[in-house]
Amino acid sequence: MKRAILSLATAACIMTGIAAEDYTQYVNPLTGTQSSFELSTGNTYPIIARPWGMNFWTPQTGKNGDGWQYTYDAHKIRGFKQTHQPSPWINDFGQFSIMPVTGSPKFDEESRASWFSHKGETAKPYYYSAYLADHDVLAEIAPTERAAMMRFTFPDDSSFVTVDAFDRGSAITIIPEQRRIVGKTTRNSGGVPDNFANYFVIEFDKPFEYVATFGNDAEGDSLVLTPGSKSFEGNHAGGVIGFKTSRGEKVHARVASSFISSEQALINLGELDGKTFDIVADEGKERWNDILGRVEIEDDDIDNKRTFYSCLYRATLFPHKFYEIDASGRPVHYSPYDGKVHDGYMYTGTGFWDTFRALFPLLNVFYPSVNLEMQEGFLNAYRESGFYPEWCSPGHRDCMVGNNSASVMADAYLSGVKVADTKTLWEGLLKGASAEHPTVGSTGRKGVEEYNRLGYVPYDTGIKENAARTLEYAYDDWCIYQLGKVLGKSDKELKPFAKRAMNYRNLFDKETSLMRGRNADGSFSTPFSPLKWGDAFTEGNAWHYTWSVFHDPQGLIDLMGGNKKFVAMLDSVFTVPPHFDDSYYGFPIHEIREMTVMNMGNYAHGNQPVQHMIYLYDWAGEPWKAQKHAREVMDRMYTPDPDGYCGDEDNGQTSAWYVFSALGFYPVAPGTGEYALGSPLFKKAVLHFENGKSMTIDAPDNSDKNVYVDDLTLNGKKHDRNFITMKELFDGGVMDFDMGPTPNKTRGTLQSAAPYSFSKEPAKK
Predict the structure, then answer these.
(1) What whole-number distance in Å separates Cα of residue 646 and Cα of residue 40?
(2) Interval 20-71: pLDDT, tens
(3) I need a labelling partner for 656 at 20 to 30 A (CA). Which of 28, 250, 276, 466 fits?
(4) d(Cα 377, Cα 187) in Å, to the nearest integer?
């Protein structure tokens, strides 16, 4: 099954014969790769893939099994790795690597590694190459969704290719008469059933003159090479094939894999049938230009364009496909939940705690047809496991907090991305809101009994990060309530969700005007430090989590005593020194360190809980401060370089923040169908939607100094509101921004200019 959707811009260029712009030229896949355990500037790796492809490829500089599989400061490549890793913290699954070597068969990861230089490296979303100095080999990769073509340019030498299926259970078989290597790898970091495996097949276009396998059993400490051997299965398996080459000779390897079977891997290899290396690369380039071309940018600052398209590339990788196409053309998938093969879609590689905020709303705006597949896949996850995923890689993972599948599923449906089986959709949301997964504590709701009874998850009952859970559950309950209304659910069924949507109020401490952990007896936890990271909160402190009232900023304003006090508290986040209390962790976690080095007070953009906070000024009558701070974050904390992020990129979320913010609006509360306005970064942006319409964002006077919105019109009519609706976007037209160097303190100040708040919704209880 193939999906071919052209952007309006691309289609128009084809019809007129005008060459479409190559947006991939602005993408740097190395953005954010200069990271470490101590300090993240992205914690990314160069993903060479198709958008949302099932398999990714990356040059591997780290040791086998290392979550930091590629780091910009490394000098040697150990192999070219098929990877499915969302982030270094969650690590990988189903990985194997391929490495060309010369002179003699080199098989272990240290001996086969080669020096390389970034000057001899080319990284594009659809193509990667590196010159391996120690082997005098140019290695190139061009992927499809489930396969890849590799091209190795060898010297005049004895040349070899090493295939490493990694440890923790693997197998390899060399079939010389078919110029083929087949194998499987079971290595994973969790979230899989007992029968998990990734089956791979590699076909070469040159006969083998040398064959060998290497490996060890479960007790073996070192790898042993066995020349002439064609098969090995054990703890760690690999193979080496070789041939005599002349200088400049190109050897091609066609690679594919499957989570279903070896037979399905051969079907997936069909994605390369009849195609040369260059055709595969060109098709990948075309596909990426379609996806990136949904937004056309005009601007004088080339680095702004590079940053934007590098972020849009990151935002269109995860979650990635985990389904395959069988011989009859149907989507089928091995289930990482029950270990069986099912019909239908499956996606994985995402943590909703991160991505509910902006990544999934971005998909709803620009790629709803893709997100519909994802939503159907999440329904399948529920059918196969009894719960929607909260963090999946490939199946349920026990990390992070919240029940934010409610946001992801509800926002999609409310945005027009409508799954057919609404009965199961609703059933799954009710299950996730009423129970905790018996073995995966972060799936469903930990502390749900106390939350429903007391109105909060108590601090003193051993449930960690309880205040964070309470705040996110309250928002998730609001999402369920809003979806239930659209689905026609009864007032009786919806009333508990409406009531619990206000549970955030139970954690508000009037003495400090901050959210605070609360004991089962109703008392607030003591001692209390607003600078303490973790404890009652998740990877943040009270200064960050107090603003996690996405669905009801007006209610939070009322708790704080009105707009003036609310704005003063918002301002304080930027003026409080970057002090911290790390006693909960025992050391400064990297999210803390990233806050301290950014020189923006206690604002911690490198982690997700506070990323929406800037836009809350729109609710309090001072939108110019949202404009100022949004531009400051874009200008200071994002670049298209290896140190281009100010923290974890996290499966597209931090990138999606930039994409939205650079366009001038942001989804503070997914599910409302509204976007808070900020400060557009570009002189002009044209947004193309799948309904065939376009919205032009015009800001001709935009500059580094002209960051404030002096006036705004929508389709020629004055627009004083501090938000725009999805309907207004999808109807198309022109937003004209008049930008200036000083704040306009008369625009957007009325209460009627504020975006949605649940407190203002009638008959909510």
Answers:
(1) 7
(2) 799 999 999 999 999 888 889 999 999 999 999 999 999 999 999 999 999 9
(3) 466
(4) 24
Q: How far apart are CA 3 and CA 316, in angstroms?
A: 16
Token readout for 86 is 């969302």
Interacting residues of 438 by C-beta distance below 8 A, sequence separation 6+: none
Helix (H, G, I), strand (E, B), or coil: what is residue 708? Answer: strand
CA distance from start to end of the chain: 47
DSSP sequence for 524-580: BPSS--TTB-STTSSSS-HHHHTT--TT-HHHHHHHHTSHHHHHHHHHHHHHS-S--
Buried b (16+ CB within 10 A) or exposed e, 199-216: bbbbbbebebebbbbbbb
Distance CA 302, CA 294 (A): 18
Contact between 755 and 674 under an 8 Å Cβ cutoff? The reply is yes
Could you tell me which residues are beta bridge partners of residue 242? 160, 210
Q: If residue 174 lies in a helix (H) or strand (E), which one and from where to where?
A: strand 170-175
Question: Residue 679 in contact with residue 712, Cβ under 8 Å?
Answer: no
CB atoms within 10 A of CB 731: 14
Contact (CB, 8 A) for 672 and 612: no
Give pLDDT tens digits for 99-109.
Answer: 999 999 999 99
Which residues have a Cβ under 8 Å from the Cβ of 324 and sit 6 or more positions away?
Answer: 54, 146, 258, 259, 260, 264, 267, 268, 331, 332, 333
Contact (Cβ atoms closer than 8 angstroms) between residue 102 and residue 160: yes
| Token pair of 590 as six digits | 């990297």
- Asked if 681 contacts 631 with a C-beta cutoff of 8 angstroms, the reply is yes
Comparing CA positions, the residue from 29, 33, 204 lying closest to residue 127 is 29
Count of residues making up the chain: 765
For tokens 């206690």, the residue is 602
What pLDDT does 92 receive? 98
Residue 218 has a pLDDT of 67
State the virtual CA torsion across 620, 625, 629, 631 in degrees, nearest 10: 120
Burial bucket for residue 420 (CB in 10 Å: 0-12, 13-18, 19+) = exposed
Q: How many CA within 13 A on the CB side of residue 200? A: 34
- DSSP assigned state of 339: S
How many CB atoms within 10 Å of residue 417? Answer: 22
| CA–CA separation, 451 and 96 (whole Å) | 44
Burial per residue of 22-40, b for 16 or more beta-carbon CB atoms within 10 angstroms, e otherwise: ebbebbbbbbbbbbeeebb
* pLDDT recorded at residue 8: 43
Could you tell me if 71 and 60 are in contact, meaning their C-beta atoms sit under 8 angstroms apart?
A: no
pTM of the model: 0.97
Q: Indicate the pairing of strand 224-227 with strand 157-164.
A: unpaired
pLDDT at 10: 45
Q: What is the mean pLDDT of each run of 10 residues along the chain (765 residues)?
A: 40 44 97 91 97 98 97 98 96 98 97 98 98 98 98 97 97 98 98 98 98 87 94 97 97 98 98 98 98 96 97 98 98 98 98 98 98 98 98 97 97 98 98 96 96 98 96 98 98 98 98 98 97 97 98 98 98 96 96 94 96 98 98 98 96 98 98 98 98 98 97 98 98 98 98 97 62
**Cross-strand bridge partners of residue 127:** 124
* Rounded Cα gap, residues 611 and 614, in angstroms: 7
Q: Contact at 8 Å (CB) between 53 and 321?
A: yes
Question: Can you tell me which residue has the tokens 């995860």?
Answer: 318
Q: How far is CA 295 from the centre of its chain?
A: 19
DSSP letter for 285, please: H
Q: Report angle CA 18, 21, 25 to the nearest 5 degrees.
A: 150
In the numeric block, the tokens 């990297």 are attached to 590
Q: What's the rounded Cα separation, in Å, for the pair 31 and 43? A: 9
Residue from 465, 186, 144 nearest 284 by CA: 144
In whole angstroms, what is the distance from residue 669 CA to residue 667 CA?
5
